[in-house]
Amino acid sequence: MVDFNKDRTTAGQTPRRVKVYLLQGEDWLDNGTGYCVGEVDETSNMPFFLVRNELDSGDVILKSFLEGSTQYQRQQETLIVWTDSSGKDLALSFQETEGCADLCDFIIKVQQDKLCPDISLYYVIPSMSDGDDITELITGPINYPEDPTMDNLDTILDLINQNSNSQFSRTSILNYIIENDYFSKLIQAFDEAESSKRLPHLYTLSEIMKTLVLFNEASLIEEFLSTEEKILGLVGILEYDPEYPNFKACHRDYLKNKSFKTVIPVDKVGIFKKDYHFNFLKDVVLARFLDDQTFNLLSSLIYVNQVEIINYLKDASLLEKLFEIYDESEHCNEQQLTLKRDGVKMLHQYVLIARSLQTHQKSNFFSFLVKGGLFRMISFALQDADSKVRVFGTELIVIIIEQDVSLVSAIDNEETIDNSDPPLNPVIEEDKDDTIVEPKNLKLKLSDDMTLISILTKLLVEDRNPGLKVQAFEALRILLDSNIASNGGNNSDFEMENPRNEFSSKDSAHCNGSLITDEFNDINTNNYFKAFYSQVAPELFKNLIELASVDQIANKDEISTQIRHDVLLYQQLCELISFCTKEHEVQISRPFFIENNIILGLGKLLDTNCKLILKLSIVRCLKNLILLNDDFYCRYILNSDILGYFFRFFELIVDQNNLANSACVDFVDNILRNCDANISIKRHNFKLIANYIYKNFRQFCGTRLAYVNTGRELIDLVENGFYEDSLQNGKFDDGFVDEILEEHDVLTPINEDATNNPTPVDNSSDVSPDTSPQGSPTVFAGLQVADLEHVNSDLAYTTEASGRFGDPEASGRFGDPDSNSPSSSSGMDASDAGFGTPTDLFAGIDSEALRSVGLPKTTEPMGVSKPEPHQGRKKKLTTTIKNKLTSASHKITRTLQNGSNSADSAVPQPPDLTPRTNGGPTSN
Amino acid sequence: MSRYDELPWKFEPRPSTSQRLNIHTSPNTNARTIQNIKQCKHIPEADVEELCSKVIELLIQEANIQHVDTPVTICGDIHGQLHDLLTLFKTGGECPGTQYLFLGDFVDRGFYSLESFLLLVALKVRYPDRITLVRGNHESRQITTVYGFYDECVRKYGSVNVWRYCCEVFDYLSLGAIVGGKGGVFCIHGGLSPDIETVDQIRILDRKQEVPHEGGMCDLLWSDPEDVQGWAISPRGAGFLFGENEVNTFLHHNNILLIARAHQLVMEGYKEMFNQGLVTVWLAPNYCYRCGNIASVLTIDDDLNREYKVFEAATQDVGAIPSKKPAVEYFI
After folding, report:
1. Arithmetic mean of pLDDT over chain B
2. Which residues of B are catalytic?
3. Residues A163 and A106 both lie in one domain
4. Residue B55 is part of which domain span?
5. In this protein, which residues make up the domain named Serine/threonine specific protein phosphatases (chain B) (predicted)?
6. Which residue among A272, A666, A895 places its CB closest to the CB of B226?
């Protein structure tokens, strides 16, 4: 409001247009209009206002000296009002705010220049509600506190309280305190009061300190924390709290006994201790007293200091020394081991700090870490016997890659430079007793090096510590993000400061090949994910793959025992399946999941007696797969009778009202919603599924599911041919389905009973009993997909679609020599294969229902579809809301005004309660 | 007055790392854990994990709108004010003796979010039928990272895993409850949703997810009653404002006597609206240790009569001085 450092030398010199009023009785009388200046009498050195008539500059309307203890009030931005020494009430009403401000500056100047030290200026702020106006002292005489004794503490407290409500007086007091080292005097008084056990004095001192802290002045808080003695003095005084008269805290004991752990000796200890003390003050000593402003002040002081810490760590080559600890990996003694572990914890602490810094700062710090040899430390941490250290290690990885996946490619480049390393060995160590990998392998190459991913996978699959599993899972999900390469290339912020650019200039020969272009990224990403699916994924999903291939009865118990012991892992695998099938290039991910029958494995898992929590994860995973609206997954699910597993599970819990039941109803409901043409544009998959459910589980939907509308609605939908009559022709894409059904009379149901009619996968195992259990289904499943692909090619009418199938990438995969070899396909009859022909594609669907619809033919092919985000339901709900809102729209403005006044409403920033800003919905 | 230097109360010193890493489990773990939580002792990470996975197994068995028998005491937002929660149990009856229904917002703001939440979870594990936990808008990953719970977990454990375990539990919490069956009390954290006309509709939601930004599930946790016609945009940025008409329609449609909800600070502890068709109850007295409000709980008896108990902030009790704990270890 008032700038105390403003230059006021010219204040009052410019004539400002003003009306002069004089109070007579109840009325303000207009005494004329003129121009006002502030001047100082040269002989007496007395300042005065001078107003000359605007029509006649010789006519002085007002000459009023600023003297005595006159109080000036600034009101309504353009008024200065006062009672002069003769008792007259005067007012200057300025034409412009600027003029008023200028003459207020004049008052401030002459008061502070001691020309008339006893006058004062108050700012009167009209109160928002009906309460009293707020007055704030802008300038005036200040009473400074006397030096504290055992007799005047109450007076000092009163005085400080009085001075706490204006910026001017606060600033005056704080300057006084700092200049006179007043805080040390308070500490002396405290020591005296404490040694003579005068409780009331101690409480008063505590109140004084709290009031001073709430002055909310950075320089004052810095002063309080400027030396160890002062810190102990501050927290000591605050140990006493009149609100809790029978207790005292022990902050000093705590601080005195606090030993900081040191891994690498540092010379600039101060900033680290400061960080600790600031936080101790914020979180412990002052936690209850802080208002939002002071909280924010402390937070920003902490922030500034932390930036300094991070920069110091970077500049003082401490990190190099830290990472050196991890160089000699062979046999270290207990002491060295402790040091290494502490080093991990220490870095973890600072990485958490760095995480709260601004993007470029943390990016910079993290890349510095990576370059300095972070992975040597992580290598140690991940292999450590102490699971806590392993957790820290993974968390370090997670935080760093969360921030900037391009650090991964930074390592890649370093790898390019450093040719001394032997070729990397991507094979995962099978021997569990062995250490996980050699440290030197702990460098991730985006192209196809799966080392880090393999380690994390191994942790996820084998480690018993749930915390670590969760970390490993998080890390994997980030590393398996399909945007991993483009993130690295696009982060220009990072690019600018990336040390790898220095490498580029030093050694361009090596780096030419690793210049990141979009094209390069694409190839790189493809290789990367191909490597994942060929090297790591089979390990990751090993048990599900086995489960899918084993006989229904035998081995089931053994595997389900394994699974029971690690429910968390399988829940995470379900999430990873949902994630991978959605995020990854379908050409790369889908063959893996289909050929390995992983989804069938999930289905079979539903049949075991594993925990309910896991079964629900499976249901959700299957739901996500269906919502991908992918033709292949859809048909796979139908042909493998995955829904049979689902409904068998559903039957078990259909009579319960619990989360499991809701999750299953939600599953069916999602299919139902997506059959609605208003929601889903590409509906044929959902219609196939709905038909399948109708065909196989009509009874269940009609009777057992009667407690919600979902079952009935699904039956009605199918029986009424998906209400196509009510739709306009040509609006949808189901012509193809219709066409197929007209050409091929498909009535053969599949898998009414899974044991009587083995699934296609079991079928293929039957065909070649000699091949190994793992190998054969894969080969055949691959072939089936390839066949299906050909079918699609035949049916693809548009060049776009044929082009897609002619894509070298795709045909390269489907043209896999193994799966096309005559030997492996022998005995594979199209009709056995399940996938083989269009006929089988739609096995199990009641074509009557579809045919009766009378769909128009379209020329749209059923090509490979990209997963579409499932937006249908959302859209509809939004529409509903909109409609309801429109009807009430005239009320909204009023409501918003009302709402913002309600007690706990969280209008963008609840002014007194919110420590930080948030982009999301605000909260109470 | 007692002499200050002889007073027993001290801030709980931190256990050493080795103590913390010492993972112990025994049949009495739960009973002991409850005691330790009440005394604000450090709960080992492994115990937190175990509690969380146990409670999840129980929560799976609960409906989206859980049916609760009378008599029951309905409690609003706690927001990490553990000592006030303990006062509640002392004045309103300890948990197995009195049946409780908590309407969410266990965490954030206060200094003991973790302990408050863990205490409720531990009680739930011990007496599953005597305590029901409903999800509030603060039982969310996004909100807790901003309003304190996340920071509290990191400060107390040095890593984010404990926060992760708790957030996993959040996803399984029921969205509401019906007290006393037909003609009873519908209890939710926030309020009604334009997407939800009947209680049965809520059954179709798979609630195991982060609180969405829109839709029925979001509205149940975010909406507020207000003197408006129909539905209006909420200044909170999520959920809706709903008026008397909407309440009456919902009550009539679903054969419900009363909607009991929390979510908004009420200086007087509770506030009935819309011809007693809706009530807001608030549990955290002197909210944020400075709002100066009083707290209340609502007890519904077997005849569905309402009794409001009002109480003030916990003070003057050993260990009841709210304070945060300093960071575990500090490395230089």
Report:
1. 85
2. 138
3. no
4. 45-180+262-311
5. 134-139
6. A895
Instruction: Give contacts of A921 with chain B, Cβ < 8 Å.
Output: 137, 143, 213, 222, 236-238
A183 and A309 in a common domain = yes
A739: number of Cβ within 10 Å: 17
Residue B265, Cα to own-chain centre: how many angstroms?
14
Residue B226 lies in a domain: no
How many CB pairs below 8 A link A and B? Answer: 269
Residue A285: predicted pLDDT: 84
Work out the average pLDDT over B174-193: 94
Specify the residue for token string 């081995």: A555
Would you say residue A778 has pLDDT above 60? no
User: Is the model more confident about A406 or about A143?
Assistant: A143
The secondary structure of residue A533, as a DSSP letter, is I
Q: Measured between alpha carbons, how far is A154 from A869 in angstroms, rounded to an integer? A: 68
CA distance, residue B98 to nearest chain A CA (Å) = 24
Using an 8 Å CB-CB cutoff, list chain B residues near A466: 49, 53, 165
A69 has a pLDDT exceeding 70: yes
Minimum CA–CA partner of A892 in chain B: B232
Tokens found for residue A366: 């993290």
Q: Cα–Cα distance between B79 and A73 in angstroms, integer?
A: 44
Q: Tell me if B318 is assigned to some domain.
A: no
**CB atoms B323 and A284 under 8 Å:** yes
Looking at mean pLDDT, say which of A82-91, A660-669, A727-736 comes out highest: A660-669
Mind listing the pLDDT tens digit for each residue in A114-151?
Answer: 888 889 999 888 766 666 777 888 888 888 888 888 88
CB A79 within 8 A of CB A16: no
Q: Which domain holds residue A241?
A: 153-315
| Predicted confidence (pLDDT) at residue B245 exceeds the cutoff of 90 | yes
Least CB–CB distance from A899: residue in B205, B234, B325? B234
Query: Total structural domains in chain A?
Result: 3
Asked whether residue A539 is domain-assigned, the answer is no
Residues A253 and A129 in one domain: no
What was the pLDDT predicted at B10?
32
Answer yes or no: do B326 and A913 touch at CB < 8 A: no
Residue A85 lies in a domain: yes
- Statement to judge: residues A100 and A241 lie in one domain: no
- What is the pLDDT, as a whole number, of residue A37? 92
Does residue B132 sit within a domain? yes
Check CB contact under 8 Å for A899 and B154: no
| Structural domain includes residue A25 | yes
Instruction: Tell me the pLDDT tens digit for each residue of A902-922.
Output: 334 333 333 333 333 334 444
**Predicted ipTM?**
0.86
Amino acid at A236: G
Summarised one tens digit per residue, pLDDT across range A197-237 is: 888 899 999 999 988 988 888 888 889 888 888 989 999 99
Q: Which of A49, A53, A47, A48 is nearest to A17 (CA)?
A: A53
pLDDT of A692 > 90? The answer is yes
Residue B290's H or E segment, with its range, is none
In this predicted structure, the answer to whether residue B143 has a pLDDT above a threshold of 60 is yes
Cross-chain residue pair B61–A874, CB shorter than 8 Å? no
Measured in residues, chain B has a length of 332
Give per-residue pLDDT as tens, A528-545.
888 899 989 999 998 888
A270 and A296 part of one domain: yes
Whether residue A134 sits in one domain with residue A181: no
A89 and A158 together in one domain:
no
When CB atoms are compared, the residue of B161, B216, B229 closest to A470 is B161
Assess whether A135 and A158 both reside in one domain. Answer: no
- CATH number assigned to the domain comprising residue B147: 3.60.21.10
In the predicted structure, residue B263 carries a pLDDT above the cut 90: yes
In chain B, the number of structural domains is: 1
Residue A261: which of B59, B204, B331 has the nearest Cβ?
Answer: B331
Angle made by CA atoms B206, B207, B208, in degrees to the nearest 5? 95
Residue B300: inside a domain: yes
Residue A446 CB neighbours (<10 A): 27
What 3-state DSSP class applies to A645? helix
Question: What is the C-alpha separation between A76 and A521, in angstroms, rounded?
Answer: 63
The whole-angstrom distance between A588's CA and the closest CA on chain B is 28
Chain B residues near residue A253 by CB distance under 8 angstroms: 10
